[in-house]
User: Fold this.
Amino acid sequence: MAKPLLDRPAGPSVRAWCNASTSTTRAVTCEACGTSYPKLDVSENGRRLSVFLGRLIVDECCGALLDQVYDESGEQMAARFLKEFAKDPTNPRFGILVRVLDEVLRNTRTKAEATATTIERLQELQQPPEK
Assistant:
């Protein structure tokens, strides 16, 4: 293992990162700080794993490091990623993005329709009674 980036755990993420698309119950070492975790019982929830700068990060240990990167650069990274998506939207690399966009757009439409209904009701209540 390469020298850890940190001398102690950064703390758990508040966003629950898992870009390795997996969690594990096996013994694992957080390569951000060098903390080793024992194997978990299979009945327990696994530890979420991400890869950052080529290192395996245990989210519950140093996920706060990923939160900080997101807070500092997430908007710029998202903008760049969306521009790349616009150039080649059928590329399998964007599979997660397509699923998330579908979910977000459906939720947004539901909320917009509910808001429109509320506005219509309020406008009806504000109408003066007919004589």
Remarks:
- The chain has a mean pLDDT of 92.
- The chain has two domains: 1-77, 88-131.
- Residues 88-131 form one domain.
- Strands lie at 22-24, 28-29, 36-37, 47-52, 55-58.
